């Protein structure tokens, strides 16, 4: 890692703090995980820009501020078990590995899953588990989870996922039409699920049995 890359990474964390990301553990994760390890060579010069970038297979690595906002809403503890739907490049997975006890990440696109797994293994993140499968089913034999994060837009909240959420657990995902969504946080209580909305967002569609059945127009997050 060059001095220039280190400087850009630290400035990215500082910019997130300036925009309201206050959790010191989360900011330290952004200072620790190098985003340039998760983008293609053609985009290395843009790795620390606060924007989405292509990663192949019509998918993107999300805008850092969006990632930080979603992770802040998860309010992760160091012993939490987290389910991530949509491994993508593995960048958010690596951030989760700094914040939680165990991370279970699902990716339906085998080329992305293989590449992400290789990156995460090279970083020696032993608390990460990657599975190639339709993430809308969740990972039932590893449930319940204290947190679930979905990195693609669902037309509605998949019940298959909320059923795997532990009591007191938080689930964050974009919900809505393919051309625009709202960021939602669900919290499971003894009485059921509470729902909060946290502003408009724009993600690629969640393709799967309990998401979009057909390819919808892609939309970077």
Query: For the residues shown, what is the average pLDDT?
Result: 95
**What name is given to the CATH topology of the domain at 51-201?**
Rossmann fold
Strands of the biggest beta sheet: in what spatial order? Answer: 5-4-3-6-7-8-9
Tally the helices: 6
In angstroms, what is the radius of gyration? 16 Å
Number of strands: 9
The geometry reads as globular
CATH architecture of the domain at 51-201: 3-Layer(aba) Sandwich
CATH C-level of the domain at 51-201: Alpha Beta
What is the helix content? 25-40%
Fourth CATH level, the homologous superfamily of the domain at 51-201: Vaccinia Virus protein VP39
Q: Give, in order, the helices and strands.
A: HHEEHEHEHEEHEEE
Structural class: alpha/beta
Most strands sheet: 7 strands, mixed
Low-pLDDT segments: none
Content of β-strand:
25-35%
What does the model show?
It is a single chain. By secondary structure, the chain is an alpha/beta fold. The protein has a domain of 151 residues: 3-Layer(aba) Sandwich (Rossmann fold), CATH 3.40.50.150. It contains six helices and nine strands. Strands 5-4-3-6-7-8-9 form a seven-stranded mixed sheet, covered by helices on one side. α1 runs antiparallel to α2 and α2 crosses α4. It is globular, with a radius of gyration of 16 Å.
List the helices and strands and how they pair.
Layout: H1 3-18, H2 24-32, E1 53-56, E2 59-61, H3 64-74, E3 81-85, H4 91-99, E4 102-107, H5 110-122, E5 128-132, E6 145-150, H6 159-162, E7 165-177, E8 180-189, E9 192-201
Parallel strand pairs: 3-4, 3-6, 4-5, 6-7
Antiparallel strand pairs: 1-2, 7-8, 8-9
């Amino acid at each position: 890692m060059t001095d220039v890359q280190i400087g850009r990474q630290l400035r990215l964390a500082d910019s997130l703090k300036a925009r309201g990301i206050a959790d010191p553990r989360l900011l330290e994760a952004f200072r620790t995980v190098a985003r340039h390890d998760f983008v293609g060579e053609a985009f290395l010069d843009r790795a620390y820009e606060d924007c989405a970038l292509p990663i192949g297979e019509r998918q993107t690595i999300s805008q850092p501020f969006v990632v930080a906002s979603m992770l802040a809403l998860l309010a992760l503890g160091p012993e939490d078990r987290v389910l991530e739907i949509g491994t993508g490049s593995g960048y958010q997975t690596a951030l989760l590995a700094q914040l939680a006890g165990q991370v279970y990440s699902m990716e339906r696109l085998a080329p992305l899953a293989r590449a992400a797994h290789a990156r995460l293994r090279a970083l020696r993140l032993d608390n990460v588990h990657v599975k190639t499968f339709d993430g809308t089913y969740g990972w039932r034999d590893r449930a319940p989870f204290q947190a679930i994060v979905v990195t693609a837009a669902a037309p509605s909240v998949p019940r298959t996922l909320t059923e795997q959420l532990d009591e007191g657990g938080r689930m964050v995902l974009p919900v809505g039409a393919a051309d625009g969504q709202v960021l939602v946080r669900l919290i499971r209580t003894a009485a059921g699920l509470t729902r909060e909305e946290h502003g408009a967002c724009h993600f690629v569609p969640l393709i799967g049995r309990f998401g979009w059945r057909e390819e919808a127009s892609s939309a970077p997050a």
